[in-house]
Amino acid sequence: MLQEAAGRGHSITLWGNSTKQRxxxxxEAGEISISTAALNHVLEYEPRDxxxxxxxxxxxxxxxxxxxxxxxxxxxxxxxxxxxTVGGVIASNSSGPRRRLYGSARxxxxxxxxxxxxxxxAQSGGMVVKNVAGLDIAKLLIGSFGTLAAVAVVNxxxxxxxDEERSFLLAFDSLAAAIAARDRILYGPLQxxxxxxxxxxAAKAVGSRSWxxxxxxxxxxxxxxxxxxxxxxxxTGVALDSDRQETLWRYIQNLTPRHLEQYADxxxxxxxxKLKGVGEVLxxxxxxxxxxxxxxxxxGYFEGxxxxxxxxxxxxxxxxxxxxxxxxxSRKTSLELWPAPGRDLEIMKQIKKLFDPxxxxxxxxxxxxx
Length: 370
Known about the structure:
This protein is α+β, with helices and mostly antiparallel strands.
């Protein structure tokens, strides 16, 4: 289909299950629309080898359910996980709270097959955890929003689920106190899988009116008990396990979908910074906000696009790296979605020309820049 459309010079809209239409740049209506949703099979799964190969249209929720039956996981924790496809998660480079310990898609994808506009199916990597030969083309497709090629098959390395997990909510009277506690944890001997910092507006739904650290820890029973003892010396809080902790992380994972559903003109801003800058960025958001406090990624939630646009302008003036990650389709052409992409943009444009010289595939989808 790609080859036929490209041969006729037709523009192409490539998508999975359309869960992230408000993410990135505007979804232009191509002359040809191709969905990968019917490519939804598990091709190869070797639990003992800790690898799996799946087609791009498989729903993320189905994949995680299958792995959970063998106490294994791909801990990306993407938003829209219930209906998002594997290809959509990878193409948008979506991740969540446990990125701090396990990394993003580029750390967990070990191989990929993708279809090009020339009608070829190319392969990068394989089904072993360490691939050392050749250029890893798959890394280019992660986060490309379908502007280079169509992801068809993705191979993952799997992570064994910890024997036991427990989560903790620690409340603080001030942002400075929360950041100080975050630093104490980061420099300590125990390393949680997730350290999220919620401002009071975002923490209301979890029963807190203060700056709140949400911490997820795993290991054997002795290790998890030690987390609880040591965190008790950091601040007052509560420990959650079983269904209660799953409820907490589902809430955090779905902050973005819930916000966009509630506000028709709502926008979500993502800013990346050094760990020492998390406090300043988080304090600048006027409404609900969340920080991956152990990796330096911050999210601000705005009820209207104009407020998000004004915040972005101020962020650029301060030298922060930020994008409007989600916004309504009707507003994207008037917003500065990615005002300061940096020098890498020229390299990205050259790569686009190599894969798609006529600019047919998902035009403008990469924040209107590609």
